[in-house]
Amino acid sequence: MEGFNSLNSDLLSDEIRDIDFDHKKNLAYIATSKGVSVLKIPFGIPKNDFTNVKIFPSPYYIPSNNPMIIDGVIYESSFKVITLNGRVIREITSEGAPKDGQQLKWDGRDSKGNYVATGVYLLMIYHQDGKNAIEKITVINKS
After folding, report:
1. How far is CA 113 from the centre of its chain?
2. Residue 74's Cα: distance from chain center in Å?
3. Distance (Å, rounded) from C-alpha 83 to C-alpha 64?
4. What is d(CA 119, CA 98) in angstroms, rounded to the nearest whole number?
5. Residue 10: per-residue pLDDT
6. Does a cis peptide bond (omega within 30 degrees of 0) precede residue 57?
7. Domain coordinates of the chain in residue numbers?
8. Rounded Cα gap, residues 9 and 30, in angstroms
9. In a designed cystine with 105, which of 10, 34, 98, 114 is the match (CB 3.0 to 4.6 A)?
10. Are 106 and 113 in contact (CB under 8 A)?
């Protein structure tokens, strides 16, 4: 498998014995000499709604070297992080959104680059075709 190896991914071994794909979940099941690895792949059956959005980790602890992942979104979606009183603290549009297939990523920072305060926030995910979803997220600021 060119590009992925045991040093740059979660593959258990570089000796690949078999591969099977789950196009609905965007997963590759890879049988290696040391066991089965499951990798998220950036291709599969395109999503056309937000019915299977998953957000992790939850709660999201910041500062963190790893972003919050918003999984199962329509390709080229955007999102806003909103306080419970309705103030938009960060908007990331599809052009500037870090994405990996059907995932969006958020680093826990507001529009000024500061980590947000501990609290519960609303995440509004939307697409240019008018489809949208609102999810609740919890952030814990350890700094």
Report:
1. 20
2. 12
3. 20
4. 23
5. 76
6. yes
7. 1-45, 54-141
8. 12
9. 98
10. no
Q: Domain 54-141 is classified in which CATH homologous superfamily? A: Macroglobulin (MG2) domain (2.60.40.1930)
Query: Which has the closest alpha carbon to 143: 110, 119, 117?
Result: 117
Give the residue carrying structure tokens 């080229």: 76
* Cα dihedral: 31, 44, 56, 91 (round 10): 150
Residue found under tokens 């500061």: 114
In the DSSP assignment, the letter for residue 114 is P
Q: What is the pTM of this model?
A: 0.69
Query: Mind listing the pLDDT tens digit for each residue in 14-72?
Result: 999 999 988 777 788 899 999 998 877 766 666 677 888 889 999 999 999 999 999 88
Spatial contact of 27 and 101, defined as CB atoms under 8 Å apart: no
Secondary structure class of 13 (helix, strand, coil): coil
Give the DSSP letter string of 35-53.
Answer: EEEEEE-S-SSPP-SSTT-
Read off the tokens for 118: 């501990």
Tokens at 84, concatenated = 């419970």
Q: Fill in the DSSP letter of residue 85.
A: T
